[in-house]
Specification:
Elements lengths: L1 H20 L13 E2 L6 E2 L7 E4 L1 H5 L6 H5 L5 E5 L7 E5 L7 E5 L2 E2 L19 E8 L3 H4 L6 E7 L6 E9 L3 E11 L3 E12 L8 E12 L6 E13 L13 E13 L1 E3 L2 E17 L9 E19 L2 E16 L3 E18 L4 E12 L3 E13 L4 E12 L3 H5 L1 E2 L2 E2 L7 E13 L3 E19 L8 E24 L2 E14 L1 H5 L10 E14 L2 E12 L4 E13 L2 E8 L18 E10 L1
Parallel strand pairs: 6-9, 25-28
Antiparallel strand pairs: 1-2, 3-8, 4-5, 6-7, 8-9, 10-11, 10-34, 11-12, 12-13, 13-14, 14-15, 15-17, 16-17, 17-18, 18-19, 19-20, 20-21, 21-22, 22-23, 23-26, 24-25, 26-27, 27-28, 28-29, 29-30, 30-31, 31-32, 32-33, 33-34
Amino acid sequence: MKKLVVLFVIAISVFELNAQQDQPVLKIDSLSEVVVTANRINLPFKENSRTINIVTANDIKNSAAVNVADLLQQVAGVDIRRRGTGGSQADLYIRGGGFDQTLLLIDGIKMDDAQTGHHTMNAALPLEVIERIEIIKGPAARVFGQNAFTGAINIITKKNLNNSVSLNVEAGSFGQLNGNVTAGIEKQNSTHIVHVGRVTSEGYRNNTDYDNANYYLKSIFNKNAQPIEMTATFLERKFGAENFYTNNPTFNEYEETQNSLLAFSTTFQKNALKVQPRVYWKRNQDVFLLRRNDPSFYRNMHISNKIGVEANASYASKLGITGFGVDVSQIYLRSNNLGTRDRFMTNVFLEHRFSVLDNKLDITPGVALTYFSDFKFHAFPGLDLGYDITNNFKIYGNIGYTYRVPTYTDLFYNDPVTSGNENLEPEEAFAQELGFKYVSPKFNATIAVFNRDANNLIDYIRNDVSEDVFAATNITEVNTKGLELDAGYNFNILDYTQTLSVGYAFLDDNILDQNEELSRYSLNTFKHQYTTRFSTQFLKNVRQNIVYKYAERTTGQTYNVWDASLAIKMKQAEFTITASNIFDEDYIETGFVPMPPSNVLFGLRYSFQ
């Protein structure tokens, strides 16, 4: 480990000397200019003292991905475990945590679901309306509150599309047929973005068909005086869920979900004080049938509502930047299995960033205080440190406590093979991290080592291999440590920009030592993960992308997956070909669901300005 860090520092030093002699001529989606939106203290990417990945608009364009789940699979340290295609259902993991331990945000709005983390990705927006994605790794409870146990992912949407309309139609393997319309409308005192889309497929095996719809509206009113931003989404998924939860061949599981958001926000700024109030309503509905054509056999229906009000503020002074905020929310759950549940939550945040030694050393202590009506008060203190070795090269570290209260599924869900536990204790952990970061328009790289000591992690355990019932249980202590490396390089060939991105993650924990063959969810994390994307262009109107993903899981499974895309632009039209799992790898990401064989998708996009 020490040798790797030393080699990284030497390599960066050599590159720094070369960069002084050969100034970069490229400036495409430069990370130096990206401001990470952390709700209170917003900092440029290169000044942030945490491990953060930015998926830029250019990355999205060159990703060969057709939805957010596929896109995030290309980020080292992020584990997206899909059950099928089309983004119908996928679980989100960061640094070996559980699917309940990563918080998803839309423009800073917390999209956590009190029923279960299985619904986290239900809120993921279509790629057409996304400006960038910020991935904050490590304990983020001090910044965002509970559920950001191992990290947070913030989807930043586009602000405007001018006056334009874009039509997109795709067709391909397994009867895939997709279509969407995205329009931007600029008025004298308002701006609007509208997206309507539908994604369908007959399925790549029995009972894996889907019919998904996306509706999105973002409006900015009164933009010439005090702008008010409104976001409204409605995302519906209807899909065959063959073996999503069981391996019984006689079941034909089926599921429908609806996820919606309505939010209003604005920004007040006077001199050094900035205040951003927000009010929002998030709703999720889930209907599950164990036998698709026999609803009376076994049916679950859950409806959760979250109503929240928050205000975040920052104040700049000679002593630095102070960030503070409050977030109040009420959760309502109505379920035929989980019962009728209510939870009131309050979060109070306070942090301050100092800069000393000619602004080379930054220190940011902070704390989040949280009250849950059913789990009382908790505090998440933390500290970030960073030192600028050069203008582009930074060393950083952070420590912090993190926390997660059980979901209602953990507490109360029961079926013939699952038992909830209303006596569960909240999960908690203390995490540490050390990293190096180099950022320039031409080359960027990050390497980080981390450690997490967790208590009371929640998993579903059998007391004996002969038992059928998995019971929700607090695991005593789990240690997780790992390493992550990300690098990207832009260079010119024939006056066209070529981009090479690589990522590697190593993870080691002692969960297997505690409950091998008895755990339902904690096993099967990544042990080694490698990703690379090579985006090239040699002709004026043609670009191509190749994506390679390698995984070795703790259960011993390994797989290699290659994807590729080709885009040909002709005036206002663009033709695309996207090939997935080109070499027909046979693999499973989670549970009992084999992933699709090699497949292809043809697309046509036409834009009106």
